[in-house]
Amino acid sequence: MTIFKTFFKIMLKYKFIIIMYTSMTIFFAGMGVQSNSSETDFSETKPNIYIVNNDEEVGITKDLVEYLKQKCEIAELENSKQAIEDAMFYRDVDYVIYIPQNFRADFIARKNPQIEIKQTGNYGAELAKMNFERYLKVAQRKVLEFDNEDELISEIHKVIERETEVDLREKIDTTKMAKLSRYFSFASYSILAITIYVLATILAVFKEEKISKRTNISSLHYKKFNKSLFAASSVFGVALWVVFVVLAIIVTGNGVFTINGMAYIVNMFVFIICAMCMSVFIGNIIKDKNAANAMVNIIALGSSFLCGAFVPAQYLPDFVLKIAHVLPSYWYVNTNGIIENCSNFSGEALNTILVNTAVLIGFSVLFMILTNIVSSKRRKID
Amino acid sequence: MESIIEVKSLTKRYKEKRAVDDLSFDVYKGEILGLLGPNGSGKSTTMNCILSLLNFDRGNIKIYGKEMTPNAYDIKRKIGVVFQDVAVFDELTVYDNIDYFCGLYITDKKMKKKYVDDAMKLVGIEEYKKYFPKQLSGGLLRRLNIACGIAHKPEIIFLDEPTVAVDPQSRNNILEGIETLRKNGATIVYTTHYMEEVEILCDRVIILDKGKIIASGTTDELKELAKTKEKIRVETKELGNKEIHEIKKLSCVEEVLYKDNILEVMYTDENNNLENIIGYLKSNNIKYSRIFSERPTLNDVFLELTGKELRD
Question: Tens of pLDDT along B63-84?
Fold first, then answer.
């Protein structure tokens, strides 16, 4: 109990560091949440087109023009080459359709008349092209089956007006998930910084040669000593996890109480275990408690930059992400990204999450083994 | 006398260098044994070997008749150690530091509190109980270091140079504290290179040099080893070669030095020397201002045995 109590007495000496890093998470993750809070809205738009009809506006030609009027905005222009080119230059018109003379007659006669097109190549032109080609392809297929023009037009409309009902059975609140992902990913920096700073410093204090000499000569069994330190570290880890979960609720709202939210929390728990194992290892290799601060800068800051905790991974170069694979933060942040876009936890998404979690556990085991090797070497007396 | 610690043929090498060379000695119940020697003579290495903080190459160490090993927790319970370097937590207060180190041995809360209070009182740092180590002077830090080592009221106490770089007030306080510990029944192994402390405190002394015991015994027994039994210093301006020659011929005179108006006469016997020299000065009408008589110190013994000073 003496060691357990002393662990927390020493920890209290570093309370300002803990508060500082926790505040950083609240501040930066909070800012990220605000910047993500603008909701995406959709409005229907129609591409601007112009039709130069050199045929008579009857039969299938008339139907094509009517169809295009429904799907697109027809620009009012002077029918001259200069006016059309000016309109396209200024993007007043995206798509120009030149219906040739005798189009109707040639089409019914299955002569496959060519329609000249001019386009700007922008998004509106693509949309107009899609609508126009849809009508034309259906008409070209149906004209082979029907000789009667009225019947042909009727059949064309049956196809192009067909609609499929889509039932959206699951819906992800992408804004809320983005907020959560941002918070949990940024938290990796603070968690690493706090665990390394606090645990590595405290362990370095306990393992300092002059102090550990006194501990070694005492009647306290070294296994009991290690158990007490482990218990205190575990309590610290769980407390840190609870604090960051509560902060998640405060900063991001009730998104935490969803399956995705729970997945973020579990992922964070595994990451905290890994961060603790890493910190214990660092605490065993550093010779001076002051070195913990340098370790925070190198490991916590470095891995947060490399692994996408600060800058989303999609903006990072491939070679940086390849290097990041050797850092636990990469797997944690990667899992957060998957959870953000996951509507149901099955198939490939679940597999990737499980693999990432296994990698984090693997890192934890590796750090534990390394810690055992280092501390048993330290315990050996010359 | 009951032997509590038995060290037999202890040898510790660092590569080719023998830090401790075939050391054998006993520590008896209730005594203060001084390990005296210059820096690098093997005092701390011997202590660390006894405490199982260092492996050794040869020899045997028994405490209370049982072999001392790193896992001898029942023996460790009875031992307190005050290391040469101050070993305390900078992050804990004076009270919390003593409480922590006492808590490694004592689990009962009430008893622990009493022991911590007693330790603070013994070294005189009660009024600093809420201070952090960085707020303490060097002397107070040393006192805290001692309190941390002896708070659990051990039967055997190892003190490794506890007064290094300490102000006179703290040194007196520490020495008084050690005396009190002995009175309370503790057996103490005290390593130092301050011969004055050894002479004040220790019942027996072992003088070490280059890892070997070069002499051991009580301070009086050790002083007997010195050829010079008494040294008399006289401040006088009136001595010539003739007088110096005559003084050399006086009874038991071993050596005579005269430099900067100071006459030093070394005697091989300690009886009537002052009387003889004063008699000679008076009979020859030689005026003198001050006269001192010195018994040999442990440093003189060490100098004669090794040809160098203890503090070299």
Answer: 999 999 888 899 999 999 998 8
User: Is this prediction's ipTM beyond 0.90?
Assistant: no
Residue of chain B minimizing CA distance to A206: B89
What is the phi-psi region of residue B40: left when phi exceeds 0, alpha when psi lies from -120 to 50, beta otherwise? left
**CA-CA distance, B150 to B162, in Å (whole number)?**
12
Could you tell me if B233 and B256 are in contact, meaning their C-beta atoms sit under 8 angstroms apart? no
Which chain B residues are closer than 8 Å to A214 by Cβ?
81, 83, 87, 101, 104, 148-149
Please report the number of interchain residue pairs, chain A to chain B, with beta-carbon separation below 8 angstroms. Answer: 68
- CA of A231 to nearest chain B CA: how many angstroms apart? 17
Residues A349, A350, A355, A359, CA torsion sign: positive
Residue B99: list chain A partners with CB under 8 A: 2
- Enumerate the domain spans of chain A: 2-33+176-379, 48-160
My answer on whether B124 and B7 are in the same domain is yes
Is the distance from CB of A339 to CB of A263 less than 8 angstroms? Answer: yes
Beta carbons of B77 and A217 less than 8 Å apart: no
Q: Does B76 sit within 8 Å of A205, measured CB to CB? A: no
Say if residue B168 is in the same domain as residue B104.
yes
CATH number at B63 reads 3.40.50.300
Each residue's pLDDT tens digit, B88-113: 999 999 999 999 999 999 989 999 99
Give the residue numbers spanning the domain of B249. 230-295
- Distance from the Cα of A371 to chain B's closest Cα (Å) equals 21
H helices of B184-287, in order, are 195-201, 219-224, 241-248, 273-283
B chain contacts of residue A376, beta-carbon cutoff 8 Å: none
Task: For B131-183, write each residue's pLDDT tens digit.
Answer: 999 999 888 999 999 999 999 999 999 999 888 878 888 888 888 888 988 99
- Could you say which of B224, B245, B277 is where a domain stops? B224
Query: Does any domain span residue B107?
Result: yes
- Number of domains chain B is built from: 2
Assigned CATH for A48-160: 3.40.1710
A216 has a pLDDT exceeding 70: yes
